[in-house]
Automatic annotation (TrEMBL):
This is Dehydrogenase. Belongs to the zinc-containing alcohol dehydrogenase family. One of its GO terms (molecular function) is metal ion binding. Residues 27-140 form the Alcohol dehydrogenase-like N-terminal domain. The keyword Zinc applies. Its cofactor is Zn(2+). It comes from Staphylococcus gallinarum.
């Protein structure tokens, strides 16, 4: 099954363009409607043109933002159902990507075939996303959304 989303992709510093993206919706996937995203310094570097021209040429156009939360609209994953709030994990290791990639014994953060949302791979700046249910974290119902929003930031800043 195919799902369409409206993405706002940075095409050059300071310029966004609305694009329609098509995503495959397969087993263990969920459809997430992003509800909040935070702007990281990395996003600002793309937006302001403070990335090397070679990096911009390689990575743009791209939907920005890798820190975000959303609501599950549909699920083919047993752990999630419509209405669940989730934190979107931006690092997508090869074993969760569509297609065939060589297996690796490295942890996900060292997987050379992984992609990272908002850094050469479309990020959260779209109205619907299809992600693996293994690549999100359910937000407890009593947790404030603004606290959930900083989960990704905390995961990279507070890890021992």
């Amino acid at each position: 099954m195919k799902i369409e989303s409206n993405a706002f992709r940075l095409i050059e510093p300071g310029v966004f363009k609305k694009d329609t993206l098509t995503h495959d919706f397969e087993e263990k996937d969920i459809i997430v409607k992003p509800t909040k995203a935070s702007v990281c310094h990395a996003d600002l570097r793309y937006y302001t043109g403070n990335r090397r021209p070679e990096a911009r040429a390689k990575k743009l156009p791209m939907a920005l933002f890798h820190e975000g939360i959303g609501i599950v609209e549909d699920s083919k994953h047993p752990d999630f159902q419509q209405g669940d709030k989730v934190v979107i994990v931006p690092n997508i290791p090869s074993h969760l990507r569509k297609g065939t990639y060589p297996t690796t014994s490295f942890q996900d953060n060292y997987d050379e075939n992984a992609v990272f949302m908002g850094s050469g791979f479309d990020g959260i700046c779209q109205d619907r996303m299809v992600v693996s249910g293994d690549n999100v974290v359910k937000v407890p119902t009593d947790l404030d959304e603004d606290v959930a929003l900083i989960a990704e930031l905390c995961s990279v800043s507070l890890f021992p």
